[in-house]
Design goal:
D-Maltodextrin-Binding Protein, domain 2; 2 domains; nine-stranded mixed beta sheet; disordered N terminus
Length: about 350
């Protein structure tokens, strides 16, 4: 065989090897998803790891604040790396729908999720739910009369109440639910009363509210339910208890963490496989239990220490309202001058 033939044969083998490498890389890239995640990694990683284990599809979490990531997707447009968007707040998810950032998911994929916990056009779905509840000190013996969120505006709670700052997403979402349930006027009066009671002293984290009630700094606080159970898991003897408000009225406010598929994703099939997994019984159990939240798919129980869904009254407010009325909610909060 001539040197020329050997050279061509060697070149052919090199090209074949390069083709195989490029082909493998392309296949690998096609099976890799990027999630813009507004949820802490430790609450997403367990479900991501199980998804990858079962499908072979790798997942990269690009984490940050939900609102900032939504704005990033809008600015990036068709150039975005995001295949999916995951938020801990239905308000941001609905805003993403209004911005036209998400693709419509097939009904067969989302029908297991109740209609009030997803977008009307199926561009996003809730994955887990949280309740706005009261954390109450067991050492405060004179608080039996507090049965409603609106009781937090009572002057008897001056300097005894703990709330987050008004930019907190769960705070905003809760206010929206109350506006929908009882009207803007009553909600504004409630905010004004709470403003007097806290006198400018607010907390930057729900966990700090629970700690403040547990150590006697405050007597009562407004939090998402799972912060109470996180605290009790570390300090089981802490003198605190959960109180489910408004059981004779509108019910407890809910919010959901949820997911959407970017309309600009080049890997929509793989992205939909991820959605399919997180709404499966296994995915729901992993996703919700990571943070003591409620699965949204009916028939899947929450963690045993959490009050069972269906055992208490929930405010009848569709989650889409948390986005549709978000701007109005912020305007109302700002008009009161809440800290």
């Amino acid at each position: 065989m001539s040197n020329k033939t050997n050279l061509l044969t060697g070149l052919g083998r090199s090209l074949l090897a390069m083709t195989l490498i490029v082909g493998s890389a392309a296949t690998w890239a096609a099976e890799e998803l990027v999630i813009y995640s507004g949820r802490k990694d430790k609450f997403v990683e367990p479900v991501v790891e199980k998804f990858t284990e079962q499908t072979g599809i790798k997942v990269i979490l690009h984490s940050g604040e939900s609102t900032a990531l939504l704005n990033k997707m809008q600015i990036e447009g068709p150039r975005t790396q995001a295949d999916l968007y995951l938020s801990n707040d239905a308000g941001n998810l609905q805003k993403g729908t209004e911005m036209g950032l998400f693709m419509r998911l097939p009904g067969s994929l989302v029908n297991e999720v109740p209609a009030n916990l997803r977008a009307a056009d199926n561009t996003w779905i809730g994955l887990s739910a949280r309740a706005r509840v009261l954390v109450v000190s067991k050492n405060a013996k004179d608080l039996d009369w507090v049965k409603s969120i609106f009781d937090l505006a009572d002057p008897r709670l001056k300097d005894r109440l703990a709330i987050t700052h008004s930019a907190n997403e769960s705070y905003i979402a809760g206010v929206t639910v109350y506006m929908e349930a009882v009207g803007d006027a009553k909600t504004k009066t409630w905010l004004e009363g709470m403003k007097v009671n806290v006198d400018g002293e607010v907390f930057n984290k729900h966990s700090k509210i629970v700690a403040a009630v547990a150590n006697g700094q405050k007597d009562i606080g407004l939090v998402n339910h799972y912060y109470i159970y996180r605290h009790l898991a570390k300090e089981p003897d802490a003198p605190i208890e959960i109180r489910l408000p408004d059981q004779d009225g509108m019910g407890v406010a809910w919010n959901v963490a949820g997911v959407a598929v970017s309309k600009h994703s080049k890997k929509k099939n793989s992205a939909q496989k991820f959605v399919e997994f997180v709404v499966s019984a296994e995915g729901q159990k992993i996703f919700a239990e990571a943070n003591n939240e409620y699965p949204v798919v009916l028939g899947i129980a929450a963690a045993p220490e959490v009050p069972a869904a269906g055992s208490y009254k929930i405010a009848d407010v569709p989650m889409v309202k948390l986005g549709e009325r978000r701007d109005e909610t912020i305007d109302l909060i700002e008009s009161v001058g809440m800290p």
